Amino acid sequence: MVPDGGVFRVTYVVLWLLVATLAFAVMMLLREHVRTLRSLREGRSLLGGPPEGARAPDMPEEARVRGAEDGGELPRIVVFLGVRCQACWGHRAAVSAFAEDRADVVGVEVSCVGSRDEVVEFVDEMWSGVRVYADPEGRISGAWRVFMTPFVVAVDEEGRVSRKLATPNFDDLVMLLGEMRDGGSDEGGDDAGHAG
Prior knowledge:
With 196 residues, the protein is an alpha/beta fold. The chain has six helices and six strands; from the N terminus they run H-H-E-E-H-E-H-E-H-E-E-H.
């Protein structure tokens, strides 16, 4: 038996509404993907963290659990981790190796969400030159506008945010340091080709 024309029209309209909704959803996802991946400063800012070019917040000394008191005049890389973040446990060795390998050119700080005791245990096997801060209530992360872990913020010699990334792998940290040295430490970060 041939289906009734009215039923056919209704299912046809429903099908096209579903296709239009899916097409709209895919376009929105692609738009967000492109905005996040583009290499402009505004695109990287979508990752979170303090805006590039802004002065980086200070780390509270009372939260420091180990490491040297002052990083000196070196730029620094601040890595945000969490004791309950499974991926963060895997990044500890890479952060430690990078900090020890590049200690003459950059200071590495780790802000770790967790109680002081949990953080001390979490960083136990990391190189002793890494400055570590316990952030039990998330106040440091909040001040830095970091709402996911792991997360990395590069800070130049003048204390300004120059770059950000979401994965603290050894190679990514080396690349980040290279970007900082190639022109990320000017006043606004807009004329990266200016150095040289």
